[in-house]
Amino acid sequence: MLIAVDFDGTIVTHEYPKIGREIPFAIDTLKRLQSELHHQLVLWTMRDGKELDEAVEYCRARGLEFYAVNASYPEEVFEPGMSRKVNADLFIDDRSLGGLPDWGVIYRMIAEDRCFEQPDNILQGERPKKKGLFGRFK
User: Fold this and answer.
1) pLDDT at 134
2) Domains of the chain listed by start with CATH number
3) Plot region of 88 (φ>0 → left; ψ -120 to 50 → alpha; else → beta)
4) Which of 29, 67, 103, 123 is the most exposed place for a label (fewest CB within 10 A)?
5) What local confidence, expressed as pLDDT, does residue 129 receive?
6) What strands, in cross-sheet order, belong to the sheet with 2-5?
7) Radius of gyration of the chain from Cα atoms?
8) What does the DSSP 8-state code read for residue 38?
């Protein structure tokens, strides 16, 4: 699976243009996704130029190499004005709906091929039915 991973706020805390502190277990989890589950990782970030080089080097110094950077595959070249949107199977980004889960949760979701899903009744505007002891008395 091709997984696109954001940098600021996902691998490190937001301190752009500086590199923030590593978010606990981010690098280790990403390396496990590569080594144990054989996924390909793309660094997918708004950084470019010197700041992008620093982010790539930050990860490389910690043993994390990416399949591609801001591209769907290593040979992809973007012309000026082209979208840098990558074609990935999964995106890990702190700005996603619901925010960024704990890296342990992320690993388990990917390893078990599970995703976060809202129950259908919530999407249709209904209140969820109560379960458990208190739900029985209503």
Assistant:
1) 42
2) 2-136 (3.40.50.1000)
3) beta
4) 123
5) 54
6) 68-69, 40-43, 2-5, 90-92
7) 18
8) -
